[in-house]
Design brief:
By secondary structure, the protein is mainly α. The protein has 4 helices and 2 strands. It has a two-stranded parallel sheet with strand order 1-2. Helix 2 runs antiparallel to helix 3. The N and C termini lie far apart (40 Å).
């Protein structure tokens, strides 16, 4: 006989960790919000903030061995919702404008954050071969696999923008 316990610690809108000030403390406001490694207020603000998900996992697992950890992380660290909003602006090419600048500014942060996440997951007692990191679904393609977001906002997102999102931002 064996027992399986499923724990769902998912938080919509969470990031790996919030942005930090020069002194190492989270910056004020939404940029300081975390999720996996630092506290998070949640989509509907919680008071007190929700504890970091990795800490919560360690606490709930206790002395039990974690057989599998399934996670996805990084889209909100990139500020994907802001990038998508920029793509939805009619007459705007998000692959060349402010969305591109935001993507280019945020992308270099991910490698270090993934390293931090890996170290904290290991410190929580989860073996690396028990972690399954999932890709985000590619919503930028139609049934035949071609870049196509014409069904969104009356066709405000061009095929070129959909291609940029699918080939550059989402991978």
């Amino acid at each position: 006989d064996s027992t399986v316990t499923f724990l769902d610690l998912a938080c919509t809108g969470a990031r790996i960790r919030g942005d930090l000030a020069a002194n190492g403390d989270p910056v004020d406001g939404p940029d300081g919000e975390g999720g996996l490694l630092t506290p998070y207020s949640g989509i509907e603000a919680a008071d007190p903030q929700l504890p970091p998900q990795v800490d919560e996992l360690a606490s709930l697992a206790g002395d039990r061995r974690v057989e599998a950890l399934v996670l996805s992380a990084g889209a909100n660290d990139l500020r994907l919702p802001e990038i998508l909003r920029d793509c939805l602006r009619p007459g705007n090419d998000c692959s060349t404008g402010s969305a591109l600048a935001l993507f280019q500014a945020r992308l270099p942060l991910l490698a270090g954050r993934y390293d931090e996440l890996s170290a904290r997951v290991a410190a929580a007692g989860v073996a690396g071969d028990r972690v399954l990191a999932l890709e985000y679904p590619d919503f930028t393609r139609n049934d035949s696999g071609a870049p196509d977001l014409s069904c969104v906002a009356g066709g405000a997102v061009t095929a070129a923008e959909a291609s940029w999102l699918g080939d550059t931002v989402l991978p």
